[in-house]
Design brief:
Helix content: 25-40%
Distance between the termini: 70 Å
Shape: elongated
CATH class of one domain: Alpha Beta
Order of helices and strands: EEHEHEHEEEEHEHEHEEH
Strand content: 25-35%
Structural class: alpha/beta
CATH superfamily of one domain: Periplasmic binding protein-like II
CATH architecture of one domain: 3-Layer(aba) Sandwich
Radius of gyration: 28 Å
């Protein structure tokens, strides 16, 4: 098969040669594109990153932190998963996800992390509760109450914080665990079945139902409010340039808070 015809005036492609040139140019364009993608991926400008979010995090909180990162990196695809803290840390250990945002967590030898933000702990009390109209409460004030813990408020973190705080007072808290969301926990509180603990971020997204029978009161550790920390955690051996870029972004966002 002839691709080119030679003549005294030069070389011209045959019809097959024309198709050959087009195919060759297409291959070169694809190779150039692949090289560009690889170069940008190496700079953290292209690719995919998976982020695990603990299901107690109030809606929109992490997306707010990611807003400028997403606008600055339009070719980075962020994928999200949701679960308990233990399941997210397991995913991280198995390399199923690149980064997890969870409540207070101990670091394993191969992980790093830092606090992204903190949220104040408040008590949700039925209006008939003797302490409902106090300006603030201390942990020992609540040692005789029943604490209602739901699955999508800061359940795991709240439980550990509650055990830690009240054991310092020499008491063991009475806990009731319910497989329901924080809005329904508030409904139980309104009916006088116990008290709820949640962060101030959840108050901003709560339902308007039953709130007329509830008072929210700050809890103090003494001179400062009690709070729950939310942390970003990742594996030390994850060499993803996108992860490094995101961690740097989170550091910068934390500095602005």
């Amino acid at each position: 098969m002839e691709l080119f015809l030679r003549s005294p005036s030069g070389t011209t492609p045959t019809p097959a040669g024309v198709e050959f040139i087009k195919a060759t140019q297409d291959i070169l364009n694809r190779v150039a594109h692949m090289r560009d993608v690889a170069w940008r991926a190496g700079r953290g400008e292209h690719g995919t990153l998976t982020i695990g979010l603990q299901n107690c995090i109030a809606p929109g909180r992490v997306l707010e932190l990611l807003r400028s990162f997403r606008s600055d990196n339009p070719d980075v695809e962020l994928l999200f998963s949701e679960g308990s803290r233990d399941s997210l840390l397991s995913d991280l250990d198995l390399c199923v996800s690149d980064l997890a945002v969870v409540t207070d967590a101990s670091f394993a030898n191969r992980t790093s992390g830092f606090t992204l933000w903190s949220e104040q702990i408040v008590a949700a009390l039925p209006v008939a509760h003797p302490l409902a109209h106090q300006a603030k409460l201390f942990w020992h004030d609540l040692q005789d109450d029943i604490f209602l813990i739901g699955r999508d408020n800061a359940g795991e973190g709240i439980k550990e914080l509650l055990l830690r705080k009240l054991r310092r007072q020499g008491s063991v808290p009475r806990l009731q665990f319910h497989d329901i969301g924080s809005v329904r926990i508030l409904a139980l509180v309104a009916e006088g079945m116990g008290i709820g603990l949640l962060t101030d971020a959840w108050i901003r997204v709560r339902s308007g139902l039953a709130l007329k029978n509830i008072r929210f009161v700050d809890i103090s550790d003494g001179n400062s409010p009690s709070h729950l920390d939310y942390m970003a955690i990742w594996r030390n051996d994850n060499t993803s340039p996108i992860l490094k870029k995101l961690v740097d972004h989170f550091y910068a966002e934390r500095a602005r808070v």
